[in-house]
Amino acid sequence: MLYLDKILAQLAYPLGFSLVLTLLALLLFGLRRRRWGAILLTLSLLWLGLWSLPVVSDALRLSLEGQYPRQAVTDLPTADAVVVLGGGITPAPPDWPYPDLGRGADRVWHAARIYRAGKASRVIISGGRLPWLGKRTSEATAMRQFLSDLGVPPDAVLIEEQSRSTYENAQHTAQLLQRHEIDRKSVV
Question: What pTM does this model have?
């Protein structure tokens, strides 16, 4: 039950939802409800096909991203800290010294930009260990290594590595801010 939220989130994605519809269709075929099975299978393929079209997926992404105008680092306000939530870096496997950068790794890179531009005196990183990754370090530890490679000194980084979800990222980061007496209004 610990990772139920992550499993349910996967089912909300087009591929996960299509797989569920396909499984239901196969179940209906097995129950000799071929017409309903065919309808569900067709819906599954149409749903997956629709979201696979770049014009559809890009339109959704751009509608969400368009709500927040892009700003150069120089235009950002000064803050006590910049907070980086996990989800963009996978800790290095035991036989490799460097973390793997995912699609969301640019958030760590941008945090380094903000720090180096003097817009924040601290970088707070949040991300725990995922049990399916074995004995790898936490995601926050991998982010700290990447930040160090980008020129952010270790003493400027506060690390939260207990969280296992975005919700826990927020909870544990709020506690870390409180412990270090950093006002939430002074965080970017």
Answer: 0.71
